[in-house]
Amino acid sequence: MKLLKPTLVAIALVSVFGCQQETKKEATKAPVLETQIQKQAYGLGASIGTYMERNLKEHEKLGLALDRKLLEKGFEDSLSGKSLLQKDEIQTLLTDLDKTMKEKQQAMNKVEAEKSLTEGEKYLADNAKKPGVKVTASGLQYEVITQGTGEKPKATDVVKVNYKGTFINGDKFDSSYDRHQPAVFPLNRVIPGWTEGVQLMPVGSKYRFVIPSKLAYGPVGNPPRIAGNSVLVFEIELLAIQKPAEPAKVGDK
Asked: Closest by alpha carbon to 79, among 14, 15, 2?
């Protein structure tokens, strides 16, 4: 949890809860958003409010649900200079809350990683038995959906791909299709399973890869989305290999 500066906390609480001193009529009245500065003010409040709401949900997920009425009261009291807590005490409390959140998050990550390890090993074993699935020496599993006829890339090449990434339960965590934009990157700057797997593909191919955790993000994972020891499934289309421009020859104009 990133601690917010007091001014940002105040803005966030206004955005999330509204001011208790408003009348009901004022509370239901739509804000005036005619000028650029009015829209900017509203946008800032909405953005920070969304951030605070997300943080509150993270607290709840970890069993640290915060009383929203007390949040409102703390905000209102601080505006009127009647806070029940001193500034130093508030800082200590927030530091302790941050520490508790980190401890609970680490414990949750450990449980999820142990679960992922067991489920991943079973999935890999079962998937390897399916017709058409090949397993490389490293443990990477793949099957051909469409076989292209173009050139195969090298690890040092820049490739252009479309892809969809899912967990073994089918939940999607990333997709270039959803962004309506192919991804372009050096093949040696991604997880090892990608570096190895895409080199097997001729341009124009579409393969399905099942990538063991050791060839993905390992026991640490890629929090908060990917738990430790996660086996990842990717469908990848190799669209093109982008070759570097030839250096100009001496004497060329």
From this structure: 14
Q: What is the 3-state secondary structure (H, E, C) of 69-111?
A: HHHHHHHHHHHCCCCCCCHHHHHHHHHHHHHHHHHHHHHHHHH
- At 180, is the secondary structure helix, strand, or coil? coil
CATH 3.10.50.40, domain 129-242, yes or no:
yes
Give the separation between CA 162 and CA 145, rounded to whole angstroms.
Answer: 14
Could you report the per-residue pLDDT of 155-206, keeping only the tens digit for each? 999 999 999 999 999 999 999 999 999 999 999 999 999 999 999 999 999 9
The answer to whether 199 and 172 have CB atoms below 8 angstroms apart is no
Give the three-class secondary structure for 194.
helix
CB 243 within 8 A of CB 234: no
- Does the pTM surpass 0.85? The reply is no
**What are the sequence ranges of the domains in the chain?**
6-84, 129-242
